[in-house]
Amino acid sequence: MRLVIARCSVDYTGRLNTHLPPATRLIMVKADGTVAFHRDIQHQPLNWMSPPCTLTMIEPGEDDIDVVEKWRVTHAKTGDELTIRIYEVLHDSSHELGVDPGLVKDGVEADLQRLLAEQVGVIGENLTLVRREFPTAIGPVDLLLRNPEGGTIAVEVKRRGDIDGVEQLTRYLELLGRDPHLAPVTGVFAAQEIKPQAKVLATDRGIRCVTLDYDEMKGIESGAPRLF
To answer: Where is the Endonuclease NucS C-terminal domain positioned along the sequence (predicted)?
Structure first.
């Protein structure tokens, strides 16, 4: 990535013509070709050109008074152009950032499933974990628990529980109930938030709903003290 802090003006021509008057800005030139112009407030760029595009240096014209550098960024598909006139360069550096692993989200379904597998007491007392991702012919059940009173419990875990999730669990229960080693099989629909329509459908089908408190479960696992 190339970072240039410069006093510059920017003209965009294409579907809409725009002009940024001369001011000091951060110009970001990314490895994929993206060129963006930032000011010292707000995260959104003032203007930008997304790839595929090319950046070329051109000679300042007679009317480009005090211009020390002139850039042209052209979009390969649309032909839209950015013309950048640079009057003073305050900083110019390039940095190899390498491959970024991307944003890791906290509280996704995989995290909920893992925490719930370690804390099956959230579902009920004296339950034991048989397996995570218990396989069936139509896909894996998130958790399969053993009930000490007999039978098993299939748990479907969602961040936001809706009718589709209840339907999914219903199909799992129908298949699992055919196995004499597992029957009788009951269902638990567990989510951080369960929509009212999903609760009604689950109750009608004999499926118990459990609302998960992710922060509390995370605190229990880590042993971190909690004020409330």
So the answer is: 108-227
Hunting for tokens 């850039």 — which residue is that? 71
Would the pLDDT of 109 be above 70?
yes
Residue 69, strand partner residues: 86
Name residues whose C-beta falls within 8 Å of residue 66's C-beta, 6 or more positions apart in sequence: 87
φ, ψ at 196 (rounded to 5°): -55, -40
At residue 199, the 3 state secondary structure works out as helix
SS3 sequence of 9-72 = EEEEECCCCEEEEEEEEEEEECCCCCEEEECCCCCCCCEEECCCEEEEEECCCCCCCCCCEEEE
Which residue reads 């010292």 in tokens?
40
Q: What is the DSSP letter of 210?
A: E
Give dist(CA 24, CA 47) in Å, integer: 14
Element (H, E) at 173: helix 163-176
Pairing of strands 35-38, 18-29: antiparallel
Task: Kindly report, residue by residue over 70-86, the tens digit of the pLDDT.
Answer: 999 999 999 999 999 99
Beta bridge partners of 74: 54, 81
* One-letter-per-residue 3-state SS of 29-47: ECCCCCEEEECCCCCCCCE
User: Across-strand partners of 94?
Assistant: 2
As a whole number, the mean pLDDT across the chain is 92
Predicted confidence at residue 100, as pLDDT, reads 82
**Which helix H or strand E contains 118, and what residues bound it?**
helix 109-118
- Extract the tokens encoding 145: 């628990």
